[in-house]
Amino acid sequence: MFRFGIRSKIVMAVAAPIVVATVALLGMPQVALAANAGSPSAIPVIVSFTASRTTVSDTGGSIVLRAKLKYASTCRITVLGSLKGFPRSFSCSSDRVKQSVTLRANKGPSQITYTFGMIVKNRAGSATATNVVVTEGIAPPPISFTTPTGSPTTLVFPEEGVFVADDPLIVTVHNDSATTQIITSVAIGTIGDPGDFNINRNNCGHITAHANCSLAVQFQPSGAGTRTGTVDIVDSSWGTAGTTVPLKLRGAGVWATATVENANIRNNVLTFPTQYGVGTTGPEQYVTLLNSGKVPLYIGVFGTTANAPITVAGGESTDFLPAADTCIDTTTGAAAYPLIVSVGQSCTFEVAFDPSGAGTRTTSVVIDDNTIGTQTQLSVQGVGVYSTTTLSINGDTPEPSPISYIFNSSAVNAAIYVTLKITDTSKVTVLFGGVKSAGVNASDFAVEAVPLAGGPSTCAGAGVELAPGRSCTVQLGFDPSAQGTRTATLNISDNSPDGGETINVSGTGK
Questions:
Q1: From 3.40.50.720, 3.30.450.20, 3.40.50.1000, 2.60.40.10, which CATH number describes the 1-140 domain?
Q2: Burial letters for 205-220: b for 16+ Cβ neighbours within 10 Å, e otherwise?
Q3: Among 398, 408, 379, which residue's Cα sits nearest to residue 316?
Q4: Do 176 and 148 touch, CB atoms closer than 8 A?
Q5: Span 121-148, pLDDT tens digits
Q6: What are phi and psi of 440, to 5 degrees?
Q7: Which residues does 339 contact at the CB level (< 8 Å), separation at least 6?
Q8: Per-residue pLDDT for 32 more than 70?
Q9: Cross-strand partners of 51
Q10: Which band of pLDDT confidence, cut at 50, 70 and 90, is reported for residue 28?
């Protein structure tokens, strides 16, 4: 299996992992007997005899034999007689020996041991050194790899955002032998982080002599930092039960980085600068979400739909209404996630404030993404206030609700009317919620809308708003259904603390 040569023999290499084997140095060299160093009959001594490498890989290689001698006039390096293709010995210089031996690659599936020894001579006799044993390991399978990054043993992926699937990398698999190799399995191994790697494409099956096939491997890190794995290729053509040839996989997961921008954001708190009436929705604020990191920002990394990736949590969460705006993928004509925001790019989302009570209201807007903790959070706050109003009938002095009014007498089934004026005396909008008549003779009294120049057309209908400082009017009607005293309570509901404008009414039917 070996050929030896002096310094320049050609090495036939098989590209495969190195199999390390052990080498033994047996016994001890002889030592000099008592003799005068100047005597021609001094017994030669081998002070040391070593090899530069005591293991040789299956790709072959050179070793250098070294020795130090005393009292030697000649020396010879010997080779174990059982080794074929070698001379039994070859000469070397005396005193100091440095001899290169080139070993050709082992093509067989078994270990081979090579033994070298030394004989030194002078005029009076000779002595033999202890042998040096070099062991070569089992020959590897004839499968090798070419990767985009140049390493024949490891496929290295560029940094990728956590939860982000990058473009697959193509690996070429080579059959370095002169026979067809049958690949029975190509799979991600169990070591390291196997869930972070995926075989996207595989056309490796029967690989004819000196032919190639290819694999496409995808990296999708589930966490930050170095992530590792293997692609295990089982070659049933090699050895008794086939051999698993691993290709190492390595990549690094990186959390994305996002920043939020809006003129009203301070210390990651978005403030609604204007007070809003309880139960009324103010104008939306638009927030820019910027990818300020070095990997793509994924919004909705788990493939959610509608506005689910942008939600609110904690505090008065029902008082704030988020919406995706442009932070949504509409390339398919419908809302879809995840949305990929490239490095340096941005999208916008909006938040509206609809306070359900008075005072400071707070919550957090949460964006489902691939930043650390799998979300970007923005605190939001606003102040809700109650509206206040005054009421006046037929030009009387305005008074706060509730008020009382007595209609003039009216014939049965003959309606009479008075004009009620409502003025918003607060800094927030009054939101009306409808009209209700209650009491003993509720059906005898009613509220009917009357337009007022410069004001809303009505303040009796549900959902009608009255701006701060503005007024509107409605007609109160009395239509007695019977003679005698008639009483009721009219309530125009709104977003004030008492829930609306209350008018206690009475009249007499004739």
A1: 2.60.40.10
A2: eebeeeeebebebbbb
A3: 379
A4: no
A5: 876 666 767 788 877 776 667 889 999 9
A6: -65, -45
A7: 298, 299, 300, 327, 328, 329, 347
A8: no
A9: 65
A10: very low
Give the CATH number of domain 258-385; options: 3.30.1330.40, 3.40.30.10, 3.40.50.720, 2.60.40.10: 2.60.40.10
CA-to-CA distance for 408 and 483, rounded, in angstroms? 13
Q: How many CA atoms lie within 13 A of 401 on its CB side?
A: 25
Asked if residues 173 and 213 have their Cβ atoms less than 8 Å apart, the reply is yes
Q: pLDDT tens-digit profile of 151-168?
A: 999 999 999 998 888 889
Whether residue 359 has pLDDT greater than 80: yes
Would you state the torsion angle of the CA atoms of residues 99, 102, 106, 110, taken in this order, to the nearest 10 degrees?
A: 10
Q: Residue 66's closest CA among 45, 81, 46, 85?
A: 46
Side chain identity at 103, as an amino acid letter?
A: L
* Percent of the chain clearing pLDDT 90 (strictly above): 41
What is the DSSP secondary-structure string of 322-386?
A: EE-TTSSB-TTSS-BSPEEE-TT-EEEEEEEE--SSSEEEEEEEEEEBSBGGGEEEEEEEEEEE-
Element (H, E) at 99: strand 96-103
Which part of the chain has CATH 2.60.40.10?
1-140, 143-254, 258-385, 389-509
Enter the tokens of residue 363: 């919550």
- CATH of span 389-509: 2.60.40.10
